[in-house]
Write a structure and sequence with these properties.
By secondary structure, this protein is an all-alpha fold. The protein has a domain of 102 residues. Helix content is 73%, strand content 0%. The protein starts with 13 loop residues before the first helix and ends with a helix.
C-alpha cells in the first residue's frame, strides 16, 4: 500500500492533485479484500498529503472539496462509520483552512455546504463557525435563505401524531439546528422546534426558548397553544408553571391567577387548588377567586371537595372556622349523606 503514497505537492498541477488524491482514496475505500487497518492507513496518508497541499499554497480548496465528497459518498458501504466520519471531519477542517487562503464565492460555498449535508445518504455534520469568514454576509444570507425555504416545506408533525423522520428531514434538521446555534437566532430556534408539535413537551420547548429570549407575550401564546393541544394532560402542569412564573415576573398578576384558575377548573384536584390559592393569596385576591372556583365545583367533585375542606380545616389554627368554610363543610356533609 505504501506505493499509493504521493508526496511533495509544490508545483503539482491542480487537476493532477485532484485525480491522484481522490483516486487513492477511492481505491482504498473500494478494496474490500484488504484489512480495514491497512485501508485506513492509506486514507490517513491521503489526508497527510492534502494537509501538505493546503499548507503549500493554492489548490487545496478544490482538492479538499472533491475528497470530502468521495469519502461521504462511500460512507454507507464502508462499515467503519465512526472512523470514516473522523476522516471527513479532518478533511472539512482542511477545507475551511483552504477557503481562508483561497476565498471562494460565498454563495457557491454555501451551496456546496448544503449539498454536502443534504445530498448524500449519510451526510456529515458541518460546523459553520470555521466557514464564517469565507461565507461572508452574502454567503451566509444565501445559506440561511436556502435552508429555511427547504425546511419550511417539511410538514409540521401535529399533536398526537408520529412523525416520519426520513433522510431529508433528519439532514435538514441538522442543518437548521447548527444554523440556529451559530447565529443565535431565536426565530430559527422556534422554527426548528415548531416543526414537531407531536406532544405537549414540544410546545413547552418553544415557550421556554421564547421566555429565555425575553419574549414574554409569544411565550404565553405558546403556553396557551400547548394547553389547548394537550387538553390539560401531560406537559400541561409544566406549561402552566412556566406561564404563571412569566406572568408574575412581568407583573401580569391577573393573567397568572387566571392561568391557575383555568388549570384547577379543567382538572379539579387538591394540587391544582393549592397552587391556585398560593398565587391568588400572594396578590391579595384569594377570597373572591376561592368563592368563584368552589361555586363551580360540580356534583362529580365530592372527593376533591372533601380534600379541599380537610386541607382548609388543617390550615385553621387556633381561631374559629371561617363562615365560608363552615358552609363548605355543611355542603360536603349533605352530599355524603
Amino acid at each position: 500500500m505504501s506505493g499509493w503514497r504521493v508526496a511533495g505537492w509544490v508545483g503539482v498541477r491542480l487537476d493532477v492533485a485532484v485525480d491522484v488524491l481522490t483516486g487513492r482514496a477511492a481505491a482504498a475505500l473500494a478494496r474490500v479484500d484488504v484489512p480495514w487497518s491497512v485501508r485506513f492507513d492509506e486514507l490517513a496518508s491521503v489526508l497527510a498529503d492534502l494537509s501538505a497541499l493546503v499548507r503549500s499554497g493554492p489548490g487545496g480548496r478544490v482538492v479538499a472539496q472533491e475528497l470530502a465528497e468521495v469519502l461521504v459518498a462511500a460512507a454507507p458501504g464502508v462499515g467503519h462509520r465512526a472512523a470514516l466520519a473522523g476522516l471527513v471531519d479532518r478533511v472539512l477542517d482542511l477545507h475551511a483552512v483552504a477557503c481562508l487562503a483561497e476565498p471562494p464565492d460565498g454563495r457557491e460555498l454555501a451551496a456546496w455546504l448544503l449539498k454536502l449535508q443534504t445530498g448524500f445518504v449519510e451526510p456529515p455534520e458541518v460546523r459553520l463557525a470555521p466557514y464564517a469568514s469565507s461565507l461572508g454576509e452574502d454567503g451566509l444570507a444565501f445559506y440561511r435563505a436556502e435552508a429555511v425555504a427547504r425546511f419550511e416545506r417539511l410538514p409540521v408533525i401535529g399533536f398526537g401524531r408520529t412523525g416520519r423522520y426520513d433522510r431529508e428531514r433528519w439532514a435538514l434538521l441538522r442543518v437548521m439546528e447548527e444554523l440556529a446555534e451559530f447565529t443565535g437566532d431565536v426565530d430559527l430556534q422556534v422554527l426548528v422546534l415548531a416543526r414537531d408539535l407531536s406532544s405537549g413537551w414540544h410546545y413547552l420547548q418553544v415557550a421556554t426558548v421564547l421566555r429565555d429570549a425575553g419574549r414574554s407575550e409569544e411565550a404565553l401564546e405558546w403556553v396557551g397553544r400547548g394547553l389547548a393541544a394537550t387538553g390539560g394532560r401531560g406537559a400541561a402542569t409544566r406549561l402552566v408553571d412556566l406561564g404563571v412564573d412569566e406572568c408574575l415576573r412581568a407583573g401580569w398578576v391577573e393573567r397568572a391567577v387566571e392561568l391557575r384558575r383555568r388549570a384547577f377548573l379543567a382538572h379539579p384536584a387538591l394540587e391544582t387548588y393549592t397552587r391556585l390559592r398560593a398565587v391568588a393569596a400572594g396578590v391579595g385576591v384569594w377570597p373572591s377567586v376561592r368563592a368563584d372556583v368552589l361555586a363551580q365545583l360540580g356534583e362529580g367533585s365530592d372527593e376533591v371537595l372533601r380534600q379541599v375542606v380537610e386541607a382548609e380545616l388543617g390550615a385553621v389554627s387556633g381561631g374559629s372556622v371561617p363562615e365560608w368554610l363552615q358552609r363548605l363543610r355543611a355542603e360536603l356533609a349533605r352530599r355524603e349523606r
